[in-house]
Amino acid sequence: MNEKAKLIAPRLPRGFEDRAPGDIGAVDAMIAKIRTVYERYGFDPVETPFFEFTETLGKFLPDTDRPNAGVFSLQDEDEQWMSLRYDLTAPLARHFAENFESLPKPYRSYRCGWVFRNEKPGPGRFRQFMQFDADTVGAPGPEADAEMCMMMADVMDALGLAGKYVVRVNNRKVLDGVLEAAGVADEGQKLTVLRAIDKLDKFGIEGVAALLGEGRKDESGDFTKGAGLTAQQDRTVLDYVNGQTPPDNAGVLELGSMQTLFDAAGYGADKIKIDPSVVRGLEYYTGPVFEIELTFPVTNEKGQEVVFGSVGGGGRYDGLVSRFRREPVPATGFSIGVSRLAHALKLTGNLESANADGPVVVLVMDKDQTARYQAMVSELRQAGIRSEMFLGQTKNFGKQVAYADKRNAPAVVIEGSDERERGVLQIKDLVAGKQAAQSISDNTAWKAERPGQFEIDRADLVNSIKRLLADQQ
């Protein structure tokens, strides 16, 4: 290589992250538990590609040369714009519409995968992150929505979060009815009112009242303009937020039906509750909406104690599939934010670590004997034991053991010339060695005792390693 050639700086783009083996293993274990619940409810897996035609995602802006508002886009060889998927729901709608004739109806599926947002990154806000969704397409009744809520509760229980969450439920039809009763007709004003209601948990009733009126000034002095409601309009909305039952409409009846199903299935208000402050997808959802809120306290970046908050949610979106087909197609579903949920499990001690799953390492004491070492590794692998032969360049025993430590190896296998002549092997239990090291401070004593190391017959390699791994469990 030309010494004057400029080296490329190894830089990770903002909004993206690398994942280590322990993180991957822990999240995989969490996903497996979620998948088990989904499949118990009768949902089947489906995968859609990372790329979709941009118009499929609904993010194409015809007045721009490049559709990059919120999505990462490129043109294919036919000059058609494609974008990395923004979520997992729009691709599902395309998949269902494209395979409408062959799919069962209702169509019940789940998907887990990466999604991409071309948005400004920040603390805890990534441009690539994982979602785990479940959806029922083709079922119009509130029974399908209630089932989603119950499945969300079962997922949280399966992850060890019983008593630390609540699934909160509302209905966009109820919200629309309240806005109609209050005489709020302007679409922009409607969105401002709904955003104000959505801030109830964060700002309290006084903060919501301010946002419904002229506006609210926060602690830093920043001012957020309000909806500008009249006193009577303000009272109508606040009565609803305070729990007063709104006039009967389709949304109220649907929530009543869902509550009946929750009661029949044994899901009390400690797990699932009707909550008028739930507002999701201001221009997206058409009926029941729901979210999982974790209720245990955490300290935010300002040092304040707050509840952890939402880790997922969803609702009914009857208009999405109709973008592809003329007839109405009802649909409901929810999405879990995998990274945020994993962070919550880590805080509560419920995220399983995969750090102890390293391989048994067969050390290379003599380079001319690699065939013998490879034979040992093959025996272990054929017995289903994760293992590897040391492939580094060093012959130093200590450095090879240090490598095994970094790999979280449970043990190393040692065969030098003396062991080879006697037909034996040395096994060094690295877990037992680390435990013994806590009580031995003298280096001479350490070398003399060789804690965790024992001798076996060469023929007993597989059985000895199996016993050692069983003892470490």
From TrEMBL:
Give the first-level EC class, as a single word.
ligase
Q: Which PROSITE patterns match?
A: AA_TRNA_LIGASE_II
Reactions catalysed:
tRNA(His) + L-histidine + ATP = L-histidyl-tRNA(His) + AMP + diphosphate + H(+)
* Location in the cell: Cytoplasm
Q: Which UniProt keywords apply?
A: Aminoacyl-tRNA synthetase, ATP-binding, Cytoplasm, Ligase, Nucleotide-binding, Protein biosynthesis
Q: Which residues form the Aminoacyl-transfer RNA synthetases class-II family profile domain?
A: 30-359
Which Gene Ontology cellular component terms are annotated? Answer: cytoplasm
Q: Which domain of life is it from?
A: Bacteria
Q: Which InterPro entries match?
A: aa-tRNA-synth_II, aa-tRNA-synth_II/BPL/LPL, Anticodon-bd, Anticodon-bd_dom_sf, His-tRNA-ligase, HisRS-like_core, HisRS/HisZ, HisRS_anticodon
Please tell me where this protein is predominantly located: cytoplasm
EC assignment: the record states 6.1.1.21
- Xref: SUPFAM superfamilies: Class II aaRS ABD-related (SSF52954), Class II aaRS and biotin synthetases (SSF55681)
List of residues binding L-histidine: 87-89, 117, 131, 135, 280, 284-285
Family matches, as HAMAP family: His_tRNA_synth (MF_00127)
Under which name does UniProt file this protein? Histidine--tRNA ligase
User: Quick one: which gene encodes this?
Assistant: hisS
